[in-house]
Fold this sequence. Notes:
globular; six-stranded mixed β-sheet; 9 helices; alpha/beta
Amino acid sequence: MKKALIVYYSQAGQTERAVEHLARGLGRTIATDLRRIEPEEPFKFPWSMRNFFRVFPRCVQSVAPRTRPLNLRWDDYDLVLLAYPVWFLSPALPMQGFLLSEEARGLQGKTVITVATCRNLPLSAGIWMKDRIASLGGHFAGQIAACERTPLWASFVTTPRWMLTGRKNAFWFFPPAGLSDSDFAQIESTAAGIAQAWAASNGDPARLPALGSNLNRVSLLIMDRIGHDVFFRPWSRLILRLFPKPGLGQDLLLVLFRINLVVLIICGSPCIRIFESSVRNNPSWIRKLGLKP
Protein backbone atom coordinates (compact mmCIF):
# COMPACT_ATOMS: atom_id res chain seq x y z
CA MET A 1 0.00 0.00 0.00
CA LYS A 2 1.42 3.38 -1.00
CA LYS A 3 1.15 6.54 1.09
CA ALA A 4 -1.50 9.23 1.01
CA LEU A 5 -0.59 12.79 0.08
CA ILE A 6 -2.29 16.00 1.22
CA VAL A 7 -1.56 19.07 -0.92
CA TYR A 8 -3.05 22.21 0.53
CA TYR A 9 -3.14 25.97 0.58
CA SER A 10 -4.13 27.98 3.64
CA GLN A 11 -4.20 31.75 3.98
CA ALA A 12 -6.06 32.48 7.22
CA GLY A 13 -5.02 29.28 9.00
CA GLN A 14 -8.41 27.54 8.93
CA THR A 15 -7.58 25.18 6.08
CA GLU A 16 -4.24 24.37 7.71
CA ARG A 17 -6.05 23.36 10.89
CA ALA A 18 -8.43 21.23 8.81
CA VAL A 19 -5.41 19.56 7.19
CA GLU A 20 -3.94 18.77 10.61
CA HIS A 21 -7.15 16.91 11.45
CA LEU A 22 -7.17 15.21 8.05
CA ALA A 23 -3.63 13.98 8.58
CA ARG A 24 -4.45 12.80 12.10
CA GLY A 25 -7.44 10.81 10.85
CA LEU A 26 -5.63 9.29 7.88
CA GLY A 27 -2.51 8.62 9.91
CA ARG A 28 -4.30 6.18 12.19
CA THR A 29 -4.25 3.68 9.32
CA ILE A 30 -2.02 4.82 6.43
CA ALA A 31 1.18 6.85 6.15
CA THR A 32 0.48 10.42 5.05
CA ASP A 33 2.66 13.22 3.70
CA LEU A 34 1.75 16.92 3.68
CA ARG A 35 2.82 19.56 1.15
CA ARG A 36 1.81 23.21 1.36
CA ILE A 37 1.36 25.24 -1.83
CA GLU A 38 3.42 28.44 -1.88
CA PRO A 39 2.39 30.96 -4.56
CA GLU A 40 5.04 33.20 -6.09
CA GLU A 41 2.58 36.06 -5.59
CA PRO A 42 1.87 36.61 -1.87
CA PHE A 43 -1.71 36.94 -0.61
CA LYS A 44 -1.46 38.77 2.70
CA PHE A 45 -3.87 38.17 5.55
CA PRO A 46 -5.90 39.94 6.72
CA TRP A 47 -6.99 41.39 3.41
CA SER A 48 -7.34 45.03 2.59
CA MET A 49 -10.74 45.82 1.08
CA ARG A 50 -9.13 46.72 -2.24
CA ASN A 51 -7.01 43.57 -2.54
CA PHE A 52 -9.88 41.37 -1.37
CA PHE A 53 -12.09 42.39 -4.28
CA ARG A 54 -9.26 42.61 -6.79
CA VAL A 55 -8.87 38.82 -6.64
CA PHE A 56 -12.55 38.33 -7.53
CA PRO A 57 -12.30 38.48 -11.36
CA ARG A 58 -9.10 36.45 -11.34
CA CYS A 59 -10.63 33.71 -9.17
CA VAL A 60 -13.66 33.27 -11.38
CA GLN A 61 -11.69 33.41 -14.64
CA SER A 62 -8.76 31.31 -13.32
CA VAL A 63 -6.07 33.93 -13.83
CA ALA A 64 -3.92 32.16 -11.28
CA PRO A 65 -0.42 32.86 -9.97
CA ARG A 66 2.53 30.57 -10.52
CA THR A 67 3.35 28.32 -7.58
CA ARG A 68 6.72 27.15 -6.31
CA PRO A 69 7.55 23.52 -7.19
CA LEU A 70 6.68 20.94 -4.54
CA ASN A 71 9.19 18.44 -5.99
CA LEU A 72 6.80 15.56 -5.43
CA ARG A 73 7.66 11.89 -5.99
CA TRP A 74 4.26 11.03 -7.41
CA ASP A 75 5.02 7.29 -7.60
CA ASP A 76 5.00 7.19 -3.77
CA TYR A 77 1.28 7.96 -3.62
CA ASP A 78 -1.96 6.48 -4.86
CA LEU A 79 -4.40 8.57 -2.78
CA VAL A 80 -4.22 12.37 -2.96
CA LEU A 81 -6.25 14.94 -1.02
CA LEU A 82 -6.37 18.57 -2.19
CA ALA A 83 -7.41 21.00 0.55
CA TYR A 84 -8.23 24.64 -0.12
CA PRO A 85 -10.33 27.61 1.01
CA VAL A 86 -13.08 28.93 -1.24
CA TRP A 87 -12.66 32.47 -2.63
CA PHE A 88 -15.62 34.00 -4.49
CA LEU A 89 -17.24 30.59 -5.10
CA SER A 90 -13.98 29.36 -6.66
CA PRO A 91 -10.93 27.50 -5.38
CA ALA A 92 -8.36 29.86 -3.85
CA LEU A 93 -6.04 31.18 -6.53
CA PRO A 94 -2.91 29.33 -5.30
CA MET A 95 -4.75 25.99 -5.53
CA GLN A 96 -5.85 26.89 -9.05
CA GLY A 97 -2.26 27.84 -9.84
CA PHE A 98 -1.01 24.45 -8.66
CA LEU A 99 -3.62 22.53 -10.65
CA LEU A 100 -2.80 24.57 -13.77
CA SER A 101 0.93 23.86 -13.40
CA GLU A 102 2.96 21.14 -15.09
CA GLU A 103 3.61 19.51 -11.72
CA ALA A 104 -0.11 18.73 -11.31
CA ARG A 105 0.10 16.34 -14.26
CA GLY A 106 1.34 13.86 -11.68
CA LEU A 107 -2.29 13.43 -10.63
CA GLN A 108 -2.85 11.23 -13.67
CA GLY A 109 -4.10 7.85 -12.51
CA LYS A 110 -4.39 8.94 -8.86
CA THR A 111 -7.54 8.78 -6.75
CA VAL A 112 -8.21 12.36 -5.66
CA ILE A 113 -10.43 13.71 -2.88
CA THR A 114 -10.96 17.46 -2.50
CA VAL A 115 -11.47 19.22 0.83
CA ALA A 116 -13.06 22.69 0.83
CA THR A 117 -13.29 25.05 3.79
CA CYS A 118 -15.66 27.97 3.38
CA ARG A 119 -18.48 30.07 4.76
CA ASN A 120 -21.35 28.08 3.22
CA LEU A 121 -21.08 27.84 -0.60
CA PRO A 122 -18.55 25.16 -1.71
CA LEU A 123 -20.34 23.70 -4.73
CA SER A 124 -19.07 25.71 -7.71
CA ALA A 125 -15.52 25.50 -6.40
CA GLY A 126 -15.91 21.73 -6.09
CA ILE A 127 -17.14 21.46 -9.66
CA TRP A 128 -14.11 23.41 -10.91
CA MET A 129 -11.84 21.05 -8.97
CA LYS A 130 -13.63 17.96 -10.27
CA ASP A 131 -13.37 19.12 -13.89
CA ARG A 132 -9.69 20.04 -13.57
CA ILE A 133 -8.80 16.74 -11.91
CA ALA A 134 -10.57 14.88 -14.73
CA SER A 135 -8.68 16.91 -17.35
CA LEU A 136 -5.42 15.85 -15.67
CA GLY A 137 -6.40 12.18 -15.80
CA GLY A 138 -7.10 11.84 -12.07
CA HIS A 139 -10.03 9.92 -10.60
CA PHE A 140 -12.23 12.31 -8.59
CA ALA A 141 -13.64 10.45 -5.58
CA GLY A 142 -15.72 13.23 -4.04
CA GLN A 143 -15.44 16.37 -1.96
CA ILE A 144 -15.46 16.94 1.78
CA ALA A 145 -16.98 20.39 2.35
CA ALA A 146 -16.52 21.97 5.77
CA CYS A 147 -18.84 24.99 6.07
CA GLU A 148 -19.59 27.39 8.87
CA ARG A 149 -22.84 26.39 10.54
CA THR A 150 -23.59 29.67 12.28
CA PRO A 151 -26.80 31.47 11.18
CA LEU A 152 -26.47 33.04 7.74
CA TRP A 153 -27.29 36.53 9.03
CA ALA A 154 -24.43 36.21 11.52
CA SER A 155 -21.78 34.87 9.15
CA PHE A 156 -22.70 37.61 6.66
CA VAL A 157 -21.08 39.94 9.21
CA THR A 158 -18.54 37.79 11.05
CA THR A 159 -16.79 36.25 8.03
CA PRO A 160 -16.05 39.57 6.24
CA ARG A 161 -14.91 41.01 9.59
CA TRP A 162 -12.48 38.12 9.97
CA MET A 163 -11.17 38.44 6.41
CA LEU A 164 -10.63 42.21 6.64
CA THR A 165 -9.40 42.55 10.23
CA GLY A 166 -8.10 39.13 11.24
CA ARG A 167 -10.48 39.07 14.22
CA LYS A 168 -12.75 36.03 14.44
CA ASN A 169 -13.79 36.22 18.10
CA ALA A 170 -17.40 36.49 19.26
CA PHE A 171 -18.63 40.06 19.79
CA TRP A 172 -21.92 41.66 20.78
CA PHE A 173 -24.55 39.03 19.88
CA PHE A 174 -22.48 37.54 17.04
CA PRO A 175 -20.83 34.10 17.38
CA PRO A 176 -17.18 33.45 16.43
CA ALA A 177 -16.35 33.27 12.74
CA GLY A 178 -15.10 30.14 11.06
CA LEU A 179 -15.44 26.42 11.65
CA SER A 180 -16.19 25.08 15.11
CA ASP A 181 -14.29 22.44 17.06
CA SER A 182 -17.00 19.93 16.20
CA ASP A 183 -16.51 20.64 12.48
CA PHE A 184 -12.79 19.86 12.77
CA ALA A 185 -13.59 16.72 14.75
CA GLN A 186 -15.94 15.64 11.96
CA ILE A 187 -13.16 16.17 9.39
CA GLU A 188 -10.86 13.91 11.41
CA SER A 189 -13.55 11.25 11.75
CA THR A 190 -14.27 11.34 8.01
CA ALA A 191 -10.55 11.03 7.23
CA ALA A 192 -10.25 8.04 9.56
CA GLY A 193 -13.14 6.35 7.74
CA ILE A 194 -11.51 7.05 4.36
CA ALA A 195 -8.22 5.55 5.51
CA GLN A 196 -9.84 2.43 6.93
CA ALA A 197 -11.84 1.84 3.75
CA TRP A 198 -8.79 2.51 1.59
CA ALA A 199 -6.61 0.06 3.49
CA ALA A 200 -9.32 -2.62 3.74
CA SER A 201 -10.01 -2.48 0.01
CA ASN A 202 -6.31 -2.37 -0.94
CA GLY A 203 -6.76 0.97 -2.63
CA ASP A 204 -10.04 0.41 -4.45
CA PRO A 205 -11.64 3.88 -4.95
CA ALA A 206 -15.07 2.29 -5.42
CA ARG A 207 -14.98 1.21 -1.76
CA LEU A 208 -14.49 4.70 -0.34
CA PRO A 209 -17.33 6.08 1.82
CA ALA A 210 -19.71 8.66 0.38
CA LEU A 211 -18.43 12.19 0.90
CA GLY A 212 -20.31 15.46 1.09
CA SER A 213 -20.95 18.70 2.94
CA ASN A 214 -21.79 19.34 6.57
CA LEU A 215 -24.29 21.96 5.36
CA ASN A 216 -26.22 20.41 2.48
CA ARG A 217 -29.19 22.72 1.90
CA VAL A 218 -31.02 23.23 -1.37
CA SER A 219 -31.25 27.01 -0.91
CA LEU A 220 -27.50 27.36 -0.46
CA LEU A 221 -26.72 25.14 -3.43
CA ILE A 222 -29.03 27.19 -5.65
CA MET A 223 -27.48 30.43 -4.41
CA ASP A 224 -24.06 29.00 -5.19
CA ARG A 225 -24.85 28.06 -8.80
CA ILE A 226 -26.88 31.17 -9.60
CA GLY A 227 -24.28 33.40 -8.00
CA HIS A 228 -21.41 31.79 -9.87
CA ASP A 229 -22.89 31.24 -13.34
CA VAL A 230 -25.38 34.11 -13.65
CA PHE A 231 -23.67 36.82 -11.61
CA PHE A 232 -19.96 36.21 -10.97
CA ARG A 233 -18.99 34.97 -14.44
CA PRO A 234 -20.45 37.91 -16.42
CA TRP A 235 -19.07 40.48 -13.98
CA SER A 236 -15.59 38.92 -13.91
CA ARG A 237 -15.44 38.73 -17.73
CA LEU A 238 -16.54 42.35 -18.06
CA ILE A 239 -14.00 43.61 -15.52
CA LEU A 240 -11.04 41.77 -17.05
CA ARG A 241 -12.06 42.65 -20.59
CA LEU A 242 -12.25 46.37 -19.85
CA PHE A 243 -9.44 46.55 -17.28
CA PRO A 244 -7.13 43.49 -17.43
CA LYS A 245 -4.73 44.96 -14.86
CA PRO A 246 -5.53 46.20 -11.33
CA GLY A 247 -5.96 49.95 -11.13
CA LEU A 248 -8.45 52.77 -10.74
CA GLY A 249 -10.73 51.64 -13.57
CA GLN A 250 -10.94 48.10 -12.25
CA ASP A 251 -11.55 49.38 -8.71
CA LEU A 252 -14.46 51.56 -9.86
CA LEU A 253 -16.11 48.61 -11.60
CA LEU A 254 -15.57 46.54 -8.47
CA VAL A 255 -17.47 49.16 -6.45
CA LEU A 256 -20.43 48.69 -8.79
CA PHE A 257 -20.02 44.93 -8.47
CA ARG A 258 -20.17 45.13 -4.66
CA ILE A 259 -23.34 47.23 -4.77
CA ASN A 260 -25.00 44.73 -7.12
CA LEU A 261 -23.81 41.83 -4.96
CA VAL A 262 -25.47 43.23 -1.84
CA VAL A 263 -28.71 43.87 -3.77
CA LEU A 264 -28.65 40.32 -5.15
CA ILE A 265 -28.18 38.81 -1.69
CA ILE A 266 -30.90 40.93 -0.10
CA CYS A 267 -33.44 40.37 -2.88
CA GLY A 268 -32.59 36.84 -3.94
CA SER A 269 -32.13 35.07 -0.62
CA PRO A 270 -35.79 35.29 0.53
CA CYS A 271 -37.03 33.95 -2.82
CA ILE A 272 -34.67 30.98 -2.66
CA ARG A 273 -35.63 30.25 0.95
CA ILE A 274 -39.32 30.23 -0.05
CA PHE A 275 -38.52 27.72 -2.78
CA GLU A 276 -36.61 25.58 -0.31
CA SER A 277 -39.57 25.60 2.08
CA SER A 278 -41.87 24.46 -0.71
CA VAL A 279 -39.66 21.47 -1.59
CA ARG A 280 -38.86 20.82 2.10
CA ASN A 281 -35.12 20.63 1.39
CA ASN A 282 -35.68 17.27 -0.32
CA PRO A 283 -32.28 15.83 -1.33
CA SER A 284 -33.77 14.65 -4.64
CA TRP A 285 -33.91 18.28 -5.73
CA ILE A 286 -30.14 18.41 -5.52
CA ARG A 287 -29.98 15.71 -8.21
CA LYS A 288 -32.81 17.22 -10.25
CA LEU A 289 -31.10 20.59 -10.39
CA GLY A 290 -27.74 19.07 -11.28
CA LEU A 291 -26.17 20.53 -8.18
CA LYS A 292 -23.98 17.63 -7.02
CA PRO A 293 -20.32 18.02 -8.00
